[in-house]
Amino acid sequence: MSTAASTAASGPFAERGSAREVEEGTAFAPKFDDAGNLAAVATDADTGEVLMFAWMNADALARTIETGQAHFYSRSRGRLWKKGEESGNLLEVVEMRTDCDQDAVWLRVRVGGAGAACHTGRKSCFYRSVPLRTGASVSLAVQTVGGAPLFDPAAVYPSGTKPDGGS
Amino acid sequence: MSTAASTAASGPFAERGSAREVEEGTAFAPKFDDAGNLAAVATDADTGEVLMFAWMNADALARTIETGQAHFYSRSRGRLWKKGEESGNLLEVVEMRTDCDQDAVWLRVRVGGAGAACHTGRKSCFYRSVPLRTGASVSLAVQTVGGAPLFDPAAVYPSGTKPDGGS
User: Fold this and answer.
1) Which residue of A16, A97, B35, B100 has the lowest C-beta tally within 10 Å?
2) Interface predicted TM-score of the whole assembly (ipTM), two decimals
3) Which of B106, B133, B161 to probe by mutation at the A interface, max A CB count within 10 Å?
4) Any CB–CB contact under 8 A between A100 and chain B?
């Protein structure tokens, strides 16, 4: 990987061809948005539970491919973010897939450390259920379903350095 | 749901409070980006396979909640998009979850019709695997892993109306 890839929109990846080439071809030609990011979804490789949603720029994607450990781009902090660098909850990527138009990737992962992918200490960022088949309104109440925290964020992240909420 | 919700960034949903309220509270207060959308990930409710990634504006989110059928916002077509409206492959939402900072939702779904969530005819949009623990380069080749198409897109979508590649 060239270090110049950290700011280039397409990084070290192939240029995008026609829609048919992107959808049916074998070239990995990821599409980054205007800000230089693509969407990344991480699921538990064993259970299929969605653990987190975040963004990758070309550098984060290249480092993820090279190391097999998930790297993201923190939009709020404006920098590369090796997941778990502070908490120890690294994400070991078992498999990476790209979608039809190659503007999103799916990571099947195993979570290291305390086993928590969420900065709140929980296994998954998606620990609250939204009611369905009801009118959407300002008073819609979510229900916690995702279990208790696996670590104490206050003890792990120095004040003011808490990472993004998965985005 | 007010019809005015289709353009409002927050739609009929609660205003967002402090980070702690958003992360630990019970109010559903989704965060839409500058374009008025939030990220939506759909997985097979039974197997955990990620089926597609797309966007929802406030109107799409409200209709999904009200009907229990997945609606998205098509950024390329600039309109509300009831998933499966043309193909018949509706997504019945078994459960919806929101993440810690409430800027993404996870839909656990069952796919109707031919059982294909992807506009290419495949069950999942994520039908290609990206090699790992190798140098990222322009010649990185993906491998098809997601199975054969379940319907023929050319027979389902009139020319020029093919929906977004899940985004």
Assistant:
1) B35
2) 0.89
3) B106
4) yes
